[in-house]
């Protein structure tokens, strides 16, 4: 008979083994950019006895329009057989003037701009190009998305779609969970500010974003360049290429909502940051691209590579700089997070398979010195007796807040811009937070491999492995589908009055288009459609018009996409970016913008 102490030891070991056997629960917050898709698929392919992705929340104020993003996520999850994963986005809640956060704030706006509705400005988001090399390309994944992904059962439905805050509350309330945040921090900040009692369940937050000690390697003049070569953001801390003259310090994910990023990093929850310092050291190179092209064993690998190939073609057409300007941003961050979680029980918390790690004391700059001024740029303080959220007068949030790409405050004659909104700066003192930071991608341990980074090897191996592979794509889901172009025969008809229809893709416009198509062609001959993306719908909704014309047998009607900005609203230096002076009056949520896609 065993002594009591032996039985106690056995029971203890069994309990420890049982606890250790539980997979780590993960929630991914993403803006569904192309590299976010890589990160999502990488996480979905991991061993589910180790890691269990339980929820996806979509960031609504960055690189995609959420109506398109949510349907892409649903179709990806359907392809991967994971309709069990909760997806949250948007919401109609607001923030009262006194700082009270109401339920289900949608995250369509940065916190500094969030009022009681889903209408508002684009103080930070205006730095993101709307058309090519920007939101249009990401909404459509360069035209690949609808042609490749299968059509799942789940779709966005007005008033039936779970909100981001609902999914965050549900999943975090259920027990210990890890957050991987690869977009702007708005959703997570709103959750933490409104649910402080649930912070205890968040074990760790991994963030792709920021720039601590980095130097931007893009837009540099070659060594043999002539004197006429003018470098762009070469050597800057940040990567906001439309904004570097005013703010050379910010990185897109943090710049999208600096106050939100500050709240997350200062939340008291352990944070690991994967900033540009690390991602700048893992550019996609020709060797990786070629090896990826050979690794097409699964549908998910095919989708990623086809999308990447289109991104390469688009960038090479612009300046032939793809291999020096496209990095493994968010997917690399997901790999660093996974490796850190695997090593979390080890004594050396900095041990990571894919990146060199270092503890740093940092903060997020949300306003510019001098603090305590009132110049009309800071809604948290300007005109308020009590600052919003009870922020400290004269504190770090009370300075000038950048108001746009051409904010005069930010420009210094014959020098770099002085605005630092969104800068993840190293600081000492009470405003600093000790954060584990990835500083550099590790080289491949296999010196015989053509891949120079350890993560490159892991990424390709994970995507091509047969375990948890995608079930089908669009063409294998619908094997009898054929691409047919329907061209009507009007040879024996006397065509009516020629008409060109200019539309902004609102619901009423689609009804009008149906009417025009149903009128006898001998009365009205619809010759062309011009689409304006400056109103009630975004540019990617043009796909709905193509589908409608195909359904009506009118593939003969050409469709032209108009300018992305009203007159005099595009940026004079980067015309693909610009202000939202007029379109900001249109609601983002269930009211309008979200329904149109």
TrEMBL record:
Ranges where the Inosine/uridine-preferring nucleoside hydrolase domain occurs: 26-368
Q: What is this protein called?
A: Inosine/uridine-preferring nucleoside hydrolase domain-containing protein
**Record-level Gene Ontology MF annotations:** hydrolase activity, hydrolyzing N-glycosyl compounds
**Species for this entry:** Glycine max (Soybean)
Query: Which keywords appear in this protein's UniProt record, sorted alphabetically?
Result: Signal
InterPro entries given for it? Answer: Inosine/uridine_hydrolase_dom, Ribo_hydro-like
Q: Say which family it is in.
A: Belongs to the IUNH family.
User: What residue stretch is flagged as signal peptide?
Assistant: 1-21
PANTHER family attached to this UniProt entry: INOSINE-URIDINE PREFERRING NUCLEOSIDE HYDROLASE, INOSINE-URIDINE PREFERRING NUCLEOSIDE HYDROLASE FAMILY PROTEIN
